[in-house]
Amino acid sequence: MDYKEGAYKVRDLSLAEAGRKRIEWAESRMPVLMHLRERYSKTQPFKGYKIAGCLHVTKETAVLIETFKACGAEVAWSGCNPLSTQDDIAAALAVAGVEIYAWHGQTVEEFYWSIERTLDRPPHLTLDDGADLIFTVHHKRPDLAQHIIGGSEETTTGVKRLRAMAADGKLLYPVFAVNDAETKWDFDNVYGTGQSTIDGILRATSVLLAGKNFVVAGYGHCGRGVAMRARGMGANVIVTEVKPTAALKAVLDGFRVMPMDEAAEIGDIFVTATGMKDVIRSRHFRKMKDGAIVCNTGHYDVELNLKELAELAVRVREVRPNNKEYLLENGRRIYVLADGRLVNLAAAEGHPSEVMDMSFANQFMAHLMLVEKHKAGEKLPPQVIDLPEELDQEIARIKLETMGIRIDTLTDEQRAYATDYTAGT
C-alpha cells in the first residue's frame, strides 16, 4: 500500500500510467465537463475553496476532480463504496497531486478512516454519493459544519436520507440534490445504470442473457434502465415492486409483474434496485433454482440478506472474480456477484463516460452556485435544494451541440402563447 500522510493512501502508485490513459479516454467522451473546465479555468472561481469529496473513484470522477482543480479548488477525496475504487485511477490522481484516500477492497473501518482524512483540513464544500461524508460531518465532526458553505448529493438514497434529516431539523448546512436534476436522474440512473449493470453481470458470469428469466426488484429510474437493457439482450424480464404506480408502469411497459416470493421460484438472474433492505432474504433463496445468479445495483449492500444466505450454505467459494458460489443444504447453488455491492461498479467500470458527463456537469455547477452565493454574501438555509430548471436545459443543450444535434426554438409569439390564460379554443 502506498501511503503519504496528509497527501494520499492508494493501492499501488505504479498503476498511475495506466490510470492516466483511462482518464484521458474519459475526457474525450465528456465534452460538457471539458467545456466547463475550459471556460472556468480562466477565471478560477474556486480559488481559496476546499472541496471534500466522497464519490466512486472512477475515470469519470477523475475528470470531475481535475476540472475542480483546474478551476482553482483544493480537493481531498475518498471513495463512497469499499469495492468501487479503481486502483489505477486512484494512483493516477495521487501522482497528479490530488489528496486521495481510496483503494479497492476496503474494510468498513478503512472506508470511514478515509472519509475522516478528507476532513482533517476543514472543507468549505462537500460532495457526496450516498451522504456518508455528510453524515460523518454531522455525527463525528459537527464543529466543521459552521465553516461549510454547502454540499451536493449524487444519488437517490442519499437525497432521501438528507430530506428526512432536513425535515427533522437536523441538517446543518444546505445541500443541492444533484440526483434530482433531470439531466442526472433521467439519464445517469436510467441509461447509465441499465448498461453498466448488464456490463457487471456479464463480466462476473459470462452467461447468455437471451431466454433467461431476469428479475428486477424495483421499477424506479434505475430498475427501469436495467429492465430495458435486459429485454434488449433477449431476456424475459419480471419486475417486483411495492409501489402500485411503479408496478403499473412496468405492466404497461410490457413486463411481467409479481411478488418476489413468486419470482424467486422461476428467476434465473436477480437484480435489486430499490434502496431498501432485505429485498431478497432466506425464504427467497430457499426457493431459487440451482444456478440462480443474484446481484444488487442499489447504493448500499443491504438489499440482499447475505447473512441469512450464509446460514443456509454448507460451502462458500469464489468461482471467478466477483462471483461467489453458495452451496445450500438442498444441493442447489446460488451465485452472488460483487458481495451484494453495486455490481456495475464492483464488477465493471460504472456508468459510461458519456452519461456521467451530464451528472458531473451538474455537480460542478452546483458547487459553482454555492461559491458564487458565498462571495455575494448570500447564506442559504440548511435544506435540500433542487437545481434550477434552466441549468438542466443548458446542460442538455450543450450536450446536444457536442453531438451535432440541433433542435427547434419557440418564437416570441409561441412563448407568449404558452402563458396566455385568456387563449381559448
Description of the molecule:
Its main location: cytoplasm. It catalyses: S-adenosyl-L-homocysteine + H2O = L-homocysteine + adenosine. Pfam families: AdoHcyase, AdoHcyase_NAD. It is found in: Cytoplasm. This protein has 425 residues and is an alpha/beta fold. The chain folds into two domains: 2-186 and 351-402, Rossmann fold, CATH 3.40.50; 194-346, Rossmann fold, CATH 3.40.50.720. Helices cover 44% and strands 17% of the residues. The protein contains 18 helices and 17 strands. It has helices at 16-28, 31-40, 59-70, 87-95, 108-117, 132-140, 156-167, 182-185, 188-205, 221-232, 244-252, 260-266, 282-287, 306-312, 343-346, 353-375, 389-402, 412-418, and strands at 2-4, 8-10, 50-54, 74-78, 99-101, 125-128, 150-153, 175-177, 213-217, 236-240, 256-257, 269-272, 292-296, 313-320, 323-328, 333-337, 384-385. Strands 1-2-5-4-3-6-7-8-17 form a nine-stranded mixed beta sheet, sandwiched between helices. Strand 3 (50-54), helix 3 and strand 4 form a beta-alpha-beta unit. Helix 2 (31-40) packs parallel to helix 3. The termini are far apart.
Strand content: 15-25%
**Poorly predicted spans:** none
Q: Identify the overall geometry.
A: globular
**Helical residue percent band:** 40-55%
Given this structure, which CATH class of the largest domain is correct?
Answer: Alpha Beta
**How big is the Rg?**
22 Å
CATH homologous superfamily caption of the largest domain: Adenosylhomocysteinase-like
Structural class: alpha/beta
Give the end-to-end Cα distance, rounded to a whole number of Å: 72 Å
Mean pLDDT: 97
Function: May play a key role in the regulation of the intracellular concentration of adenosylhomocysteine.
EC number: 3.13.2.1
GO cellular component, one term: cytosol
InterPro entries: Adenosylhomocyst_ase-like_sf (IPR042172), Adenosylhomocysteinase-like (IPR000043), Ado_hCys_hydrolase_NAD-bd (IPR015878), NAD(P)-bd_dom_sf (IPR036291), S-Ado-L-homoCys_hydrolase_CS (IPR020082)
